[in-house]
UniProtKB/TrEMBL annotation:
Its cofactor is Mg(2+). Keywords: Hydrolase. InterPro entries: NUDIX_hydrolase-like_dom_sf, NUDIX_hydrolase_dom. It comes from the Bacteria. Residues 40-168 form the Nudix hydrolase domain. SUPFAM superfamilies: Nudix. It holds the Pfam family NUDIX. This is 8-oxo-dGTP pyrophosphatase MutT (NUDIX family). PANTHER family: NUDIX HYDROLASE DOMAIN-CONTAINING PROTEIN, UDP/ADP-SUGAR PYROPHOSPHATASE.
Amino acid sequence: MTLWRTRSSTTVYENPWVRVREDAVDRPDGSAGIYGVVEVRNPAVFIVPVTADDEVVLVEVDRYTTGVSLEVPAGGSDGEDLLLAAQRELREETGLVADSWERVGSMFALNGICNAPEHVFLARVLRPSGEPTEHAVEGITAVRTVPWTGVMAMVADGTITDGETVAALMYAAIALRRIA
């Protein structure tokens, strides 16, 4: 049972990827309020690619909203099967394919203001795809391979600031039994 009650909902913006709505609500304490919600139209996928040498493949992305960011490969599922979307995103962003795939977790981004489901995959047994990447379209400026311990240090020192990447790495660490 939710403590919130929606009185009315109005779409204030939408495009093929997101819908923004403004809801008139009754808050948990019973007072009236307004709540803005961003709904992502399709779930996103996040991939933690780990090499045979225990390195994580990361992409450096120039984000319109926040600038340059070091992240795991990720993207929208565009309505397709989540595993197929993860495989496509890995190939498009890194030029790699993986022979081993494991779904290691699910989460929501910015759940205080968004309904944005996300699914995390661990990809192993990596090899070049032989297909062109979409770096120019995606804003990817580099693909980097970093030892697992180095990636954890980059989270600790603030080099990796993307919250979804931090969460995806946590799911991967649990799956890989790096933490209990």
